[in-house]
Amino acid sequence: MLTLFILLAAFLVMLVSLSGAVLFLLPQKKLQRFLPLILSLAVGVLLANAFLHLLPDALQHQESHRQLFGWVLAGLLGFYFLERALQHGHPQLPDQAISTASYGKVNLVADGVHNFIDGVLIAGSFLVDPLLGVTTTVAILIHEIPQEIADVAVLLHAGFSRKKALLYNLLSASACVLGAVATLTISHWLTPNLNILLAITAGAFIYLASADLMPLLRKNVEQPLWLHGLMMGLGVLLMLVLIGPEASHQH
């Protein structure tokens, strides 16, 4: 019965990826106009997730801070080379199209790892205490909403169609179920190494926000700079507010 609850909780978190469909309520022209601002929101969400959520969680379970930040560096460099490899796989495309397609795929991989970690956290907390499992699931459900909306915005800007953006984001979110299943089967290995996965994902989010999205925003001159700054700040504030309940449950 406990296994059923764990899988159900992971499945619910996976379905949150569909919240990105809220962007489709906007007409196509308005969506294209506001997409750079939504990307600014995504930058704030990604960086806040890395620095205020993933890294503090990882630091709680890592004695050597130097080693932990080494894994962050590994994540950052690893996703750089992953993106270069994805670019190399499409030599027939013009440079701009290559870059566009590749950072969308990098976002899917990074978010897939993040969702896998969520599945591990959900299953692990249920195994410790079912009530802790429920509260952890609720906290993850809440803070995943802005993350998933941001992810769909990144994919749309990367050239994915609306249908493909939602479908691929759902597939990436299905890693949450995989994380839960993996914890149920190999928890003796996975749980002690969770801090490494957290650090690598933080590095991936930092890379995606600073190396891919920020340069795109620098090219945008339609909206004033202060408005983009406001949207980034809103992204950080959203994560601060939504991470709060999860942090309180962990302490």
From TrEMBL:
GO molecular function terms noted in the UniProt entry: zinc ion transmembrane transporter activity
Key words of the record: Membrane, Transmembrane, Transmembrane helix
TM helices/strands, residue ranges: 6-27, 34-56, 68-86, 166-190, 196-213, 225-244
GO CC term (a single one): membrane
Topology of this chain in the membrane: Multi-pass membrane protein
Recorded superkingdom: Bacteria
Keyword Transmembrane on entry: yes
InterPro entries per record: ZIP
Subcellular location: Membrane
Any GO BP: intracellular zinc ion homeostasis
Protein name from the UniProt record: ZIP family metal transporter
Native species: Rheinheimera tangshanensis
